[in-house]
Amino acid sequence: METSGKYALVTGASSGIGWHISEELVKRGYSLIAVSNQPIQLLDLKTRLESDYKVSVVTYEIDLAKEDSAQQVFDFCEKNNFFVEVLVNNAGIFVFGEIANVDYLKIKSIIPLHTLTPTLLCSLFGKRMVRQKKGFILNLSSISAVMPYPGISLYGPTKAYLRHFTRALRTEMKVYGINVTCLIPGATDTALYDASNFRTPLMMKLGLMKKPQKVAKKGVRALFKNRAECIPGFLNKMTVLLIPIIPHFVIGLINKNTKLVKKTGNLPD
């Protein structure tokens, strides 16, 4: 395999948007460090990309929800002399349900996975980028960042943190010549969405759900064009603009009626 002197590190690289971002980056000549807690899928990614593009793919299996995971990833790269020119914080999980009913361990996982670990990775690898006066950081948020809605009371707020953190980080890193971009996708056809709860074919047909490869391509392109944010799809752009101005009492009414329908099977009079 050919190894370039420049590396891209992608968390959550083993599936979904992360897989396709990895492919977009190796197309641009980067050797890849693929990080995930899914060893079988990581091996599949390595085999596919090395076969199709003749590049070097290094895999690193770790649970990024653990408190010291960012330091472990950074130490692994330092030990092996991998200079990470592109950092992509993509790893995430989707938790749907009322907070009182969400599994305790899922709560313990989603908050560090979406906030602490990507922040520490930006700090650790950002220091090296500052010294080199070159680097690219892509953080994945979500349009749910503008939706303080019941049912996604964990997912939305943690993604909101990532969006605001990325904007602040972009301003700090700009003076050092480092590109920082926030990718804000809407619903995407990945394993995050339980097919039993989402009508994927219909949503795809209506344009409410995007293919992960298209989201990945737009995100990587925005990163190298040094755009602050990338929101793939016209409907998603409108959602980000319009959702925040909906009065919250309307959301409360919708939630109340939804609960009533689930309980009785009938719409309220």
Describe this structure in words.
The chain is α/β, with parallel strands linked by helices and 269 residues long. It has a single domain, classed as Rossmann fold, CATH 3.40.50.720. The chain has 9 helices and 7 strands. Strands 3-2-1-4-5-6-7 form a 7-stranded parallel sheet, sandwiched between helices. α1 links the parallel β1 and β2 (31-36). α3 runs parallel beside α4 and α4 (104-132) runs parallel beside α5 (155-174). The longest helix has 29 residues, at 104-132. The chain is globular and about 55 Å long. Mean pLDDT is 87; it is low at 264-269.
Shape type: globular
Rounded mean pLDDT score? 87
Task: State the helix count.
Answer: 9
The tally of strands reads 7
Would you summarize the structure shown here?
With 269 residues, the protein is α/β, with parallel strands linked by helices. It has a single domain (7-242), classed as 3-Layer(aba) Sandwich (Rossmann fold), CATH 3.40.50.720.
Task: Set out the fold topology.
Layout: E1 7-11, H1 16-27, E2 31-36, H2 39-53, E3 57-61, H3 69-79, E4 84-89, H4 104-132, E5 135-140, H5 155-174, E6 178-183, H6 200-205, H7 212-224, E7 229-230, H8 234-242, H9 248-264
Features:
single chain, 269 residues, alpha/beta, Rossmann fold, 7-stranded parallel sheet, globular
